[in-house]
Structure formats: C-alpha cells, structure tokens
Specification:
About 70% of the residues lie in helices and about 5% in strands. It has about 375 residues and is mainly alpha-helical. It has a domain of about 220 residues. The strands form 2 sheets. Strands 1-4 form a two-stranded antiparallel sheet. It has a two-stranded antiparallel sheet with strand order 2-3. Helix 2 crosses helix 12 and helix 3 runs antiparallel to helix 10.
C-alpha cells in the first residue's frame, strides 16, 4: 500500500484553560462585529447607517425619559435570563420562556379580572406569586416529558410557547374579554391595588426592578457559593461523574425547569401588574427569546447577565427610536439581536478552543 498526503484540515482543540481576559473581551468584540455587519445591511436596504446606530445605541442613554424606559425593560429581560442561565449551566435548555411568561401573566390577571372590586395591598404581591406558580406549572409539563418520556426539552418547551399564545388568544377573545373594550382583544383595566408600586416618581419603573436585582444576587449566591449550584453545574459538565457521586439527573432537570419557568412567570406577572395594567395579546413581546441572548451574552454568569440585560433593554428602546427617526423596519432590529448572539457564540468558541491544522495521511492500495 502507498501513502499520500491531503491538504491541511482545521481542527478545534479544547484549551486547557480559557483566558479570563479573552472571556471578558468576547462580548465587546461580538458587539463590534455585529455592528459592522449590520451597518452593511442598513446600507443595502437604503438606510443611513450613522443615523441608525446613533438612534439604536446612543439615544437610549441621552435622556432620563429614555433611560427610565431602558430600566423598565431591563427587569423582565434580567429576571428571565437569570432563570434560564441556571438551567443552561446544568445543560437543561429551556427555550420556552416566552410561553411561561404568558402563563405567568394569565395566572396573575385572574385576581383583578375575577375580583375587580377587591382592594388591599395584598393584591399585587399575590399576583406576583400566582405568576411564579403559572410559569412553573407550564415548565413542569416540559420537565415531565423530559424525565419520564425522554422527550427533547428544547422542542417541547418551544411548542408549548405556541400553545400558551393560543390560550391567551382564547381568553382575550372569549371569557376574559372586556365587554366595554370596543371589541379589542384585551381584559378590563386592573384596579389601583393590583398595580405594582412605582419605584421612581415620574417614570414607569416599579418595585419589581428591585425584586429582580435581589433575585439576581440570590442567583449568584446559589450558583457560585452553594452546594446546590455545584451539583447543578457538575451535572451539566460531567453527567456521568455526577451520577457516580449520587446526583440525580432527573432532579436537576425538574429543578432547572421549575426555576426558569417560575422566573419567566414572575416577569409576566410584573408586566401586567406594572406598565400595562391589563392583560393584552401584545404582552408577548419576545422577552422570552431575547432573554436567551441576554443569558449567553452575559456568559451565563449572574453578574454578567445584569450588564447584558441592560444593553439588550437599550437595544429594544433604541430599535423603537430607529424605527421612528431612521425608518428602520422592525425585522432589522431582530436581525441585530440574532447576529449579536451568533457573533458572541463564535467568539466564545475561540476563547475555549484553539484552531489547529493537521494534514491527514491516507493509504491507497497498490
């Protein structure tokens, strides 16, 4: 047999230890790459790229009114992303936070819709608790299918989001529709005691932002300082080793999905009891999907997620500004978000792996 050489082929080899500096540089590098790519897109669709970038990335921070809206949107993004990140680090991929967000909003809305005359400061805290319950119950369906039937949690949770959207449509077009709402698919307006108190006077920022920050600290303590967080991370990184150590994989799946679902449900409850004040079909604004980008852009670390949630919220407000001032289509804003996630995943891959070139040798028969 004779041997012949082939062209060099690239191979990804895992680094023994990822550089901390490179890990910290990955998000800004991804942002720079995504910005450059989208500048080209804006030129292709005939928009002024300078005006778009200014409106999208700078205007949200130039006035208190705009920045207060950034803080308002930071809350649900941060809350959902923190819950998802716990599952992602355990290699449990809950992609259905959007549906869990909707169920949390539905459960929370039951009190002011069924008891519109109720009064007392107990109402809005009870609504938030019901939101947690609704999101967790919806996530438990995915957990059951994953643990008992070995179904893929990505597909199950994603499809359940579509079911949740149809359930919302049914309620708002049927039993929960406001009879005095001029035939719009929305519920009655909630009473004053069903609204989360405003945190900053003159803005729509409410107390739920403080609750979100407190839960972010709790997520850091759990994942970085507790044995529970250690078990979840070991189960994700080395499931066989975790099994030998007595860690139960099914338990980790249930816990991860319930935490993620409960966080998304709480965000949905805070949304209807906060800036919206009623249940609407537009409650589903893509927070559940954007939170996936937030979680990964923050490196699945509770502190990093706070920064990435603030940036993504600014991108939401900046996208609205760009649609008005630069006539940018809403799809372009979604493309920016998606390209940002793609650029980050590529960047973090090269942080954790190095590229090596090998020339394979093949042997041919004489």
């Amino acid at each position: 047999m004779s041997a012949f050489s082939a062209p060099f082929l690239p191979t990804l080899v895992r680094r023994e230890r990822a550089s901390l500096a490179a890990t910290l540089l990955a998000p800004p590098v991804a942002l720079a790459v995504a910005t450059v790519l989208n500048l080209g897109l804006y030129l292709l669709i005939g928009r002024d790229p300078v005006a778009v970038v200014y409106a999208m990335l700078f205007e949200p921070f130039l006035s208190w009114a705009s920045f207060s809206e950034v803080l308002l949107k930071t809350g649900p993004l941060l809350l959902i992303a923190q819950g998802l990140a716990i599952g992602f680090r355990a290699k449990v991929f809950n992609i259905g936070a959007e549906g869990q967000f909707i169920l949390g909003a539905i459960f929370a809305s039951a009190i002011p819709i069924w008891f519109p005359q109720a009064t007392g400061q107990w109402i809005w805290p009870m609504m938030l608790l019901l939101g947690v319950l609704g999101g967790a119950l919806w996530a438990s369906i995915t957990a059951f299918w994953r643990v008992r039937l070995n179904a893929n949690e990505i597909l199950v949770s994603l499809m359940l989001s579509l079911v949740a959207a149809q359930l919302l449509n049914y309620l708002l077009l049927g039993p929960w529709k406001d009879p005095n709402g001029f035939n719009f698919p929305q519920s009655v307006m909630f009473q004053y005691d069903a609204m989360v108190p405003v945190l900053i006077a003159g803005t729509r920022v409410n107390v739920s932002l403080l609750l979100t920050l407190a839960l972010s600290i709790a997520a850091w303590l759990v994942m970085q300082k507790s044995f529970l967080g250690y078990k979840l991370q070991v189960g994700g990184l080395a499931p066989r080793a975790a099994g030998y150590a007595g860690f139960n994989e099914g338990w980790a799946i249930w816990l991860s999905l319930l935490i993620g679902g409960g966080a998304a449900g709480l965000a949905g409850a805070a949304e209807v009891a906060g800036p919206i004040g009623q249940l609407q079909r537009s409650i589903s604004t893509g927070y559940g999907y954007a939170a996936i980008i937030v979680a990964y852009l923050g490196g699945l670390h509770p502190i990093g997620i706070i920064a990435s949630a603030l940036f993504m919220a600014a991108l939401y407000i900046g996208g609205d500004n760009a649609m008005v001032s630069a006539n940018l289509p809403i799809a372009a804003v979604r493309v920016f978000q998606g390209s940002l996630l793609l650029a980050y995943l590529i960047a973090i891959a090269f942080v954790r792996y190095r590229l090596e070139w090998h020339r394979p040798i093949y042997r041919s028969k004489p």
